[in-house]
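During the reporting period the student researcher (J.K.) took over the structure-prediction task from the postdoctoral fellow and processed the backlog of single-chain submissions. One of the processed entries is reproduced below for the supervisory committee.
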Amino acid sequence: MNRYKTAAIVFIIIGFMLSHAMCAQVAFEYCNMLWGIAYRGYSAPASVAFLLAIPYLLGIMIAFTIAFFLWRKAKHK
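J.K. obtained the following structure tokens:
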């Protein structure tokens, strides 16, 4: 197998791992914020937890962009 294709597959796997980690952490923090609002008196809305998705989304976009270019390079070689 071409090393560019192998690297592209690795970056695709990294992108999916980041995606799943993002979903798990944002869901946990959203539930944590709901609990905090109800019982601890947090003043921020629970939707603040979705701000945690921004760094993950950047990482996912970078990983898939690198994978796309590596895949194209593997096809041309």
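The committee noted the following: Residues 3 and 28 are 37 Å apart (CA to CA).
J.K. will present the remaining backlog at the next meeting.
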